[in-house]
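Record type: monomer structure entry
Structure origin: computed from sequence
Chain ID: A
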Amino acid sequence: MLARLAEERVTALGNSIRIIDGDVYRKTLNHDLGFSYADRLENIRRLGHVGYEFVQQGIIAIIAAINPYESGRQKLWELYDAKTIWIDCLIQQLILRDKITISKSDFKIKIFELSIKVDTMYTQK
């Protein structure tokens, strides 16, 4: 996972960092949510709040979650000044890496909304 690589590098520089793994939080804090549009927005809002709590303590927070809707990213930016890192890769690559989450969703056939405000973009090869 790209977030784990970032965690290693940030930690090596002497900074505190927490990865907020969307799959882990789906089993705990967000266990009551499905994969509808409204549930996905609520999922990312809750993850954003968890990240904000870490940042308030001086800890870098990375939310590692599928966040396909611009409105969800915009809300995180408005509430927490969150930055967006866009991972550009083929849907087949996502399915290989995350068979459970992708298979539960309808994103096998839909295209994610590309954010107008992207702070960093990474292309998966």
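Annotation 1: The longest strand covers residues 17-21.
Annotation 2: The CA atoms of residues 87 and 122 lie 5 Å apart.
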